[in-house]
Every structure is written in C-alpha cells, then in structure tokens.
Amino acid sequence: MSKGWLSALAGSDLLKGRVEVVGLVDIDRKTAEARAAEFDLSEAVIGTDLQAVLAETRPDILFDVVIPAARHSVVETGLAHGCHVLSEKPMATTLDAGRALVAEAEKAGRVHAVVQNRRFIAGVRRIRRFLESGAIGELTGLHCDFFIGAHFGGFREEMENVLLLDMAIHTLDAARFMPGKTPLAVYCHETNPRGSWYAHGAAANAIFEFSDDVVFTYRGSWAAEGANTSWESAWRFIGTKGTLLWDGADAFEARVVANDTGFLRELAPMEVPDPTDLRQTHGHASVIAEFLDAISVGRTPETASNDNIKSLAMVFGAIESARTKKRVEITL
User: Fold this and answer.
1) pLDDT, tens digit, for every residue of 279-301?
2) What is the DSSP letter of 149?
3) Is residue 280 assigned to a domain?
4) Which residues constitute the domain of residue 141?
5) CA distance 239 to 75
6) Does residue 259 lie in a domain region?
7) Which Pfam families does the annotation name (predicted)?
8) In this structure, are 131 and 249 located in the same domain?
9) What distance in Å separates the CA atoms of residue 55 and residue 308, rounded to the nearest whole number?
C-alpha cells in the first residue's frame, strides 16, 4: 500500500510541492530501503523504530500504512509525537480501539483521518450530488453487489472476517456517504464458501437499516470466480420517483416515472451530471489533499476518524450479527 501512497505524492498535481517525505519506517529495513530507492528518497531517514525516526525527523504528519493489527500503536505513537495522522483503513480492529483513537486524537489536539479513497472517485461524488438533487424523489433503498475472485496471498488470506473487515469498509462507507444517511441496525449472514482460498469470512450478505426508513442491502464475496463486478460494486438506488443504476465504473442509468397511468408506468431517462469539483475525484491523491487542506485551515477533514468510526461501526455491527445470528443495533 505504501507504493500507492507514494505514487500519489509523486504523480499528482494536487500534491506537488506539498509534502516532503523525511522518513520511512518498516519492521524490515530492506523493505524501507527498497521503497526509498524506488521513489528517489535518498534524503529520507530509514529506520525500523518509529519512535526513533519521529524523534529524529520531527515531522508534521505521519502516514500510517501498516496492517490493521499494528494500527493502534502506530497512530498512538504518531499523536504522542505531535503528528497529524492519516491512516489506512480500517481505522481499528475493534470498535473500542476505534473509540480510543478518536479520544487520543482529541486529547492530543491533532487530526486523525482515514484513507477512504473510494469516496474520492467520480462515480461516488456524482451519485451523492444526484441523490441530493431529489432527481429520483426521496430515497427508499439502495442495494449493491460485490463479487470478485481476488487472490492476494499474504495476511488477508489468514484474516478472520476478511471481506467485512478489509474490503466492505469501503462499500459500507460509500453506502453511508452517498445518500447521507445514518446506519441504525444490521442483520448479517457471513460464510466462507466451498473452494474459498481464505481462512474465514470470504462472503457476506447483510441488510442495514438506515435513518429515514431507508434500507441498504449488501451482497459480497472475495471468492467468487467467473463474473467479477467492479471493485466499487454494482449499485441500485430506488427513490419515490424512479431508480438509478451504477455499474461501479462508467455506466449510469437513471429513469423516473413519466406519467400516472398504466400497469407499468412509462419511464423517462435522466442524465447523471458530472461532479462539480474534479479535485475530489482522484482517489488516494484527493483524500491526501483534502487531509492537507483541512489541516492548513484548521477544519475537520471529510474522513476524520470521529466520522469514519460510523462506517467502522457498520462493519463490526455486521460481524457481531454474523456471529450471534441476530439483528444488531449500530451504536457509537
């Protein structure tokens, strides 16, 4: 993941001249040295001890790109050294750990935010704007399918609840963000299908209750070969006047009821306008830029941990429901 972050820093006009990488830390020094060489960071301090490198370089911000199990100690260390911290997702391995990080950031007077980079793609921003316009009336339901046969190797294939914890956080965050609704409860059934190359939880089906009587359904699998969806899922948004379909890539199809007669009402197509702010459609680069913008003017970034914890609560609510086979209320 560090390659994706450093590529965004090196290659995006949004970030040119805004960040100087002064240190790289990894438990394997050779890994950090190789990454420094790859991105021509010969002046950066290389180390295996985060505390020592932070003390030597005294940076303004820390980019936390570690595996989830190491996140809490890395964020805690960064905040203790006066850094603003931008973390990979998920922001914590438990909801209590997430709450603790929110409290620690507040106590330190520093910003802690999470790279929910899929908020910052054109399709998600377009849908947010389209739904806000009321074009299909009042939203009553949104539904998504995520099916990909993903062979990562490495730590993901050993994780528990791998789909919900490592991938679904993106989808659930988008589901909360696009309609601007609050998650209230969930019922989830989690499985590890026959033939799965994951240790646990490669597939899940969930029903979420959102505010304003909106229902969100999620069907997903990371062990589904033969017909991959987009990484952003395939979506259906149903309103009181019509429906919007999005394939998770470039195809949008919106239709609204055109008259009030007939068994099946006549439908009229609607255009889904492009996002108004193209700066917000560049994935990792956009979320890093938004983080920097927020720090520079003293506001809260869009993906601050005190907001992102609501998406994390959806994940852990689903995991608890799958474990207990019961509907679970989502609370912070």
Assistant:
1) 666 778 899 999 999 999 999 99
2) B
3) no
4) 121-272+310-329
5) 41
6) yes
7) GFO_IDH_MocA, GFO_IDH_MocA_C3
8) yes
9) 29
